[in-house]
Design brief:
With about 325 residues, the protein is of the alpha+beta class. The chain has two domains: about 1-35 and about 175-325, OmpA-like domain (60s Ribosomal Protein L30, Chain: A, 2-Layer Sandwich); about 45-175, Helix Hairpins (Orthogonal Bundle). The chain contains seven helices and five strands, in the order ααααββαβαβαβ. The protein has a five-stranded mixed beta sheet. A hairpin with a 2-residue loop joins β1 and β2. α2 (about 5-100) packs antiparallel against α3 (about 105-185) and α2 packs across α6.
Length: about 325
């Protein structure tokens, strides 16, 4: 009896020590998983943006191709007109030479027409140079767009590959969680069938809920004989999973605490912390679980799953929850 009264003073520092050793690692692993999922969503968004940009560039390239074809047609037409005018100019020159004996008025008109043709030829030559320059600029723009398309295609393929890798890693983790659930469920099958224990998969983690009577007497933090036998079975199953981070949370109902003159537990918060610590310590000392991967926390009566106004609700709220997460090797 004296040993039981001293339990609270023994386990509180142990709870803090265990929590200090493993909570940082556990939080880091949870944050890494959240970052992985956020990165997967970000990559999916970038892939969609890349595909939209590639489609726009391809449309622009097709427009440039059409403009180049149109310019080539105009250049060919201009060249034909230039050749025709040059021939007309030659004919006029010949006519001038042949008609030197005709009236000066007719010669003046011919000369004037010749000069007009010469100016038109010069203007057309200038237009041709401008068209050639525009065609050169379009060609350079088309080559630049082709380079950008190639770079975007490479980036797009990289994003797709990274997204597929993230999705595959997520799929593997979910599959491993299902296997973990089956292994742990086999170890506590009797308690699950008796509706005193529950097991559920939450993403890539597994949550095991054990009601108070399986492990402790009311308002006590010492494991019962039946409780240690249950933890032996559960510990062997957890050990067989390999490296896992295990968070052990203690919860209570809001029933009034019984006061004892010596060694009594002063609050439900203290009771839930002591119980979580007792489970963590037993799994380490008797099942060989790595204490660096164990986190014990107490939440008192502040996270109920049902109302405390019925016996069934209080029984459901007074519980130990073990959350098994896949740990980095």
């Amino acid at each position: 009896m004296r040993l039981m009264r001293k339990i609270p003073f023994f386990f509180v520092p142990l709870s803090l020590a265990l929590a200090g050793c493993a909570s940082a690692k556990f939080k880091q692993q949870r944050a890494q998983l959240a970052q992985c999922e956020s990165r997967s969503q970000e990559l999916s968004g970038q892939v969609k943006e890349g595909e939209t940009w590639i489609a726009a560039l391809q449309t622009q390239a097709r427009d440039l191709e059409a403009q180049v074809a149109d310019l080539n047609g105009k250049l060919a037409s201009q060249q034909e007109r230039i050749d025709s005018m040059a021939k007309s100019n030659t004919d006029l020159t010949s006519a001038i030479e042949a008609g030197k004996g005709e009236s000066s008025t007719k010669i003046a008109e011919i000369v004037k027409e010749k000069d007009s043709l010469a100016r038109r030829v010069a203007a057309m030559q200038k237009d041709k140079i401008a068209l050639e320059r525009a065609r050169s600029n379009l060609k350079a723009g088309r080559e630049k767009i082709a380079e950008e398309l190639a770079a975007l295609k490479t980036a797009h393929e990289g994003l797709l590959a990274q997204g597929e890798k993230t999705a595959e890693e997520r799929r593997l983790r979910l599959g491993q969680a299902r296997e973990d659930l089956g292994s742990v469920a086999d170890a506590i099958l009797k308690e699950i069938q008796g509706e005193k224990a529950r097991i559920a998969q939450n993403g890539d983690s597994v949550a095991v809920t054990l009601q108070e009577p399986l492990l402790f007497k009311p308002q006590q933090a010492k494991l019962t004989e039946a409780g240690t036998a249950l933890l032996d079975r559960l510990g062997r199953a957890l050990q067989a999973l390999g490296p896992r981070s295990i968070k052990i949370d203690g919860h209570c109902d809001n029933a009034a605490m019984k006061w004892e003159p010596f060694g009594s537990i002063s609050s439900r918060w203290e009771l839930s912390s002591l119980r979580a610590t007792a489970v963590a310590r037993y799994l380490h000392e008797h099942s060989g679980l790595d204490p660096r991967r164990l986190v014990a926390s107490g939440f008192g009566e502040f996270r109920p799953v049902k109302g405390n106004d019925t016996p069934e609700g209080r029984e459901a709220n007074s519980r130990i929850v073990l959350t098994v997460d896949q740990a980095a090797p």
